[in-house]
Amino acid sequence: MRVLGVDPGLTRCGVGVVEGVAGRPLTMLGVGVVRTAADDDIGVRLVGIERGIEEWIDRFSPELVAVERVFSQHNVRTVMGTAQASAVAMLCASRRGIPVALHTPSEVKAAVTGSGRADKAQVGAMVTRILRLSAPPKPADAADALALAICHIWRAPAQNRLQQAVAQNRLQQAVAQHASAVKGRTR
Amino acid sequence: MRVLGVDPGLTRCGVGVVEGVAGRPLTMLGVGVVRTAADDDIGVRLVGIERGIEEWIDRFSPELVAVERVFSQHNVRTVMGTAQASAVAMLCASRRGIPVALHTPSEVKAAVTGSGRADKAQVGAMVTRILRLSAPPKPADAADALALAICHIWRAPAQNRLQQAVAQNRLQQAVAQHASAVKGRTR
């Protein structure tokens, strides 16, 4: 599976493409940063992010786009920009029918380092090792985008199993309800 | 001037078009709500908002899009959705080269009711009176979108004067700096 990871941000939006399946060595196909100028109007910056993401989707045709789930407990100004950039990334993917998955920062850190509280350096070091790169990708936003893609590929089988279990449970409940309704009628 | 006001939201995104200039009676050209289903994926919802906003821009060709400035002090979940919907509205406008203006909720309330702390009913009543409507637009998001457009039209002359003053001040400073630099060199 080929995943485009997006670490959303208005000034630096990290992007990274990883291909592979859980349990096998993963391959990095590309990594970079979409930048917009802090002194440009917000609308112009969002158009810049849109163009950048479109280019990455055009170039790598990912099967899925994994975006960092934004929380509001951090710095107020940063969070607004992050939410807006992530909206543009999700919009670009959904418009083309490409599925979007969201992962929290701690899910991503836990997936690649084993700890949900790992620092940037640790994430960078593990991304370098997992993808067999010669040096950690710079800036940190680029490494985080790759970590998101890796996290998605590794978590996907577990998530699929969970979804199947939930679906099966719903089906069993529906069958049970139907059976008891039939029983009620035939009494 | 023709302004499209957008009260951003994922479930209900208020839209309203007002035409006129400060000091003259204003006219409402259209009002409505772009809705998306709460149980749809976030990406699908953003695509729905994009389509809705595009339709309103196509239909009314506004010269400017006024969007509510989002703050993070409110409910965490709501704010994320609001920030994401506002990003899509700003993107749609900027992509077509239509200028975007942001106004805070208290600026909008103060502009139409005289108080930055007015409630929804008061805003609805004043929008009804200002635009000479037979009844307050429903839901409140639609009325808020019209209030945003009115606020922009009424504040625009003051904002233009302010921007001109700031620009003139910068120019004078630049001239003064240049003069003192020349004086320094010729000493």
What Rg of chain A is obtained from the alpha carbons, in whole angstroms? 20 Å
Numbering strands along the chain, what is their spatial order in the largest sheet of chain A?
Answer: 3-2-1-4-5
CATH architecture of chain A: 2-Layer Sandwich
Estimated structural class of chain A: alpha/beta
What is the number of helical segments of chain A per DSSP (H or I, 4+ residues)? 5
Helix proportion of residues of chain A, in percent?
55-70%
Please report the two chains with the greatest interface, counting residues with C-beta closer than 8 angstroms to the partner's C-beta. Answer: A-B, 28 and 28 residues
Please provide the ordered H/E string of secondary-structure elements of chain A: EEEHEHEHHH
User: Can you tell me the residue ranges of chain A where pLDDT is under 50 for at least 5 consecutive residues?
Assistant: none
Task: Write up what this structure looks like.
The structure is a homodimer of 187-residue chains. Chain A is α/β, with parallel strands linked by helices. Chain A has one domain: 2-Layer Sandwich (Nucleotidyltransferase, domain 5). Chain A has five helices and five strands, in the order βββαβαβααα. Chain A has helices at 42-60, 76-95, 105-113, 120-130, 140-186; strands at residues 2-7, 12-19, 27-35, 64-68, 100-103. In chain A, strands 3-2-1-4-5 form a five-stranded mixed sheet. In chain A, α1 packs across α2, α3 (105-113) crosses α5 (140-186) and α4 (120-130) packs across α5 (140-186). Chain A is globular and about 70 Å long. Chain A starts with a strand and ends with a helix. The mean pLDDT of chain A is 90.
